[in-house]
Amino acid sequence: MVLLGRGPITAEWLTDPPVWLRCVAANYPILAPLPGWGLTGSRFHPVRALSRAGHLPVVLVRAGRESAEIAATVEEFVAEAARCAANLEIIDVPEGRHGFETLDPTDGAREAVHRAVGAVLARLKG
How far is the CA of 35 from the CAs of 69, 73, 93, in angstroms? Predict the structure, then answer.
């Protein structure tokens, strides 16, 4: 089973991954509640949960032209992944913006989508 996107709610899956969960895939996610959301508890903070994920694979598609506010949450997540040696694969889309696969259907965008799907499928196949 794979859990796709919805950034902040991935914290629950990372905190205590069920045995059936094979991979978390995050496509240009928001990885912490943004200011003004009023979500200060740890329930919706994937960065705080990542160290508890064990060897659960995480596939992260990162948009290079993401808004600074969202990009900061992703960078914090990547830094925490390095700190706790999380099983993180990053697929960078340097020219991508939030929603790139539909807003900018370029060859690079299509390649990123194919790479992300391939990475997830590889984890499902074991």
Answer: 9, 11, 25
In the chain the first and final C-alpha atoms are separated, in Å, by: 12
* Interatomic CA distance for residues 55 and 84, integer angstroms: 11
pLDDT confidence tier of residue 42, bands split at 50, 70 and 90: low
- Polymer length of the chain: 126
Smallest CA-to-CA distance from 61 within 33, 89, 21, 95 is with 89
pLDDT by residue (tens digit) across 48-71? 999 999 999 999 999 999 999 999
Instruction: Kindly report the pTM of this predicted structure.
Output: 0.88
Structural contact between residues 112 and 91, judged by C-beta atoms closer than 8 angstroms: yes
